[in-house]
Design goal:
6-stranded parallel β-sheet; 493 residues; alpha/beta; 7-stranded parallel β-sheet; binds uridine-5'-diphosphate
Length: 493
Amino acid sequence: MVTPKIHAAILASPGMGHLIPTMELAKRLTTHHGFDVTVFIVTTDSSDSDRTTTSKILQQTSNFNGINVVVTPPVDVSDKLDPNNPSLGLRIVLTMFESLPYIQSQILSMKFPPSVLIVDLFGTMVLPMARDLHMSTYVFFATNAWFSAVSIYLPFITNEAFSRHANDHEPLLIPGCEPLRFEDTLETFVAPWGPIHEGYVEAVKEILSVDGILMNTWQDLEPAAIKAVTENGILGQFAKGPVYSIGPLVRTVEPKEKTEGEKLILSWLDKQPDESVIYLSFGSGGTMSEAQMRELAYGLELSKQRFIWVVRQPMEEDASAAFFNTGKGGDGLAVVDYLPEGFVNRTSELGICVPMWAPQAEILKHPATGGFVTHCGWNSVLESILSGVPMVAWPLYAEQKMNATLLSEELGVAVRVKATDGGMVCREQIAMLIRRVMVDEDDICMRVKVKEYKLSGEKALSMFGSSHESLCQMAKDCEVHLHLNSEAKCRGA
Ligand code: UDP
C-alpha cells in the first residue's frame, strides 16, 4: 500500500519575525520529509511597504515545489484596541480571530484537505476547528526552549508567585530551567490579572493538548531547557504530545535578483576587510526614541568601526512601533533627518545607513561582517549564530530580554547593553561594547564560541543530526495520526 502524502497547513501570524521561520519550516517539511504544505499568511491592514517586504520573502520561497501560499485578506482591528495602550500581542491575536472564518472556508474548500495543522503561539484559536476536522495539531514555538518552558509552565504558576514577581520583583521559578528574573520579564507576566495574561494562559492550555510542540532550537544550544520541556518528571509531563527541537531554522541566502539598494550594500561589503564591519538592526519592528537614536549614532562614531546601520523613524513610547510597517517611515523624512547633524558626512568613509530594511541574512553571512548590534529577536539571534557573528545584545520588547540573558550569560556569545536610570544607553557604553565585540583581544572567546555553536547548529540539521532526526520523528508521528484520524472519521467519531 502506498502511504498517502501528508498535507500540512501552517499558519503564520502577522509580522516578519513569524512569517520567516514559518516559511523555513514549510521548506524543510517539503524538501526533506515529502510533505505538501499550504502556508496561510495572516495579514493586517498595514502599509503597502509591509506587503512589499512580505512578497520579497515569498519570492525567495516561490521556487519550492510543494508549497502553496494563501494570503488572507487584510483585516483592520484598530477599533477594538485601546488607542492609549495598543498592545502588539493583542493586535496580533485579534487579527488572527478575524481571519479565522476565511482560513476555515479555504480549508473546507480544498480538494486535498490538510490532515495536519501547525500554528504559532498566536494561532491557538484555530486548534478547536482543526480537531473538529480530525486534523493532527501542532504548535510551532519559533523561539528558544527556555521561553517555551516558561510558557508551558504558565498555567501552573500560582497567583501568589505572579504577585511576588510583579510586586516584589522575585524571580519566577521554572522547573529544570534558569529562573526568570524580574529584569527579563514580559509584560504578560507582570500584569497577571489583565486580559492579556488570561488570554495567554488560555492559549497555553490549548497548546498543552496538541499532538506535538515544535521549537526552533537544538540540543547542543540549550541542553538543560530542552531536557526540562521534554522529560516526564519535569515539564514534559504537562504536554499531551511530544516536544521536538527542530532548529535552527533560519533564512538561507538564496540566489535571487537583487534590488539596486541591496547590490550597493553588498558591493560595499565586498570592499571591506574580513570581520571588520558591525551590523546594527533592531528586527522588523524595533524602534527607539530620537534621543536614544542620536546617542547610538554618537556611540557608533566613537567606536571608530566600519558599520551598516538599518535606521528607522524614531518613536518615543513604543519600542515595537514598526512591527506592522517594515518598509518605509511614513513621515516622508530621509534617514539623515533623524541623525545628529553631520553624522552621515563624518562617517561616509566608515559606514552606511540603510533606511528601514536591509538584506540581513546576506549581510550576516558576508565575510566582512564581524559583529551585530541586535534587539535579540530569535530569528536575528539564530541568523547571527549561524553566521558565526558575536553580538551586542540590545533587547527591546517581547521575550528579547530573556534571549539577551541566554546569549550573554549562558552561551557567552554576546555582551549586553545596560540602560542608565533614565532608561538611556549612553554613547560611551555603546562604543565600548562595540569595540569589545569587534576588536578587544580579551573578548576573542565570544567569536570562538559563536563559531562553535554555528558548527553545532549545522550539525543538528544535517542527516542524522538531532534536529533532523526530531523532524523525521514528527513526520512519522503525523503518518500514525493520519491513519488513526481517518479511522475515527470513518467511525464518525
Ligand atoms: N530582517 C531583515 N532585514 C531587516 C530587518 C529584519 O531581513 O532590515 C529580517 C531578519 O533577518 C529576521 C527577521 O526579519 O529574519 C526579524 O525577525 P526577529 O525574530 O529577529 O525579530 P522581530 O522582527 O520578530 O522582532
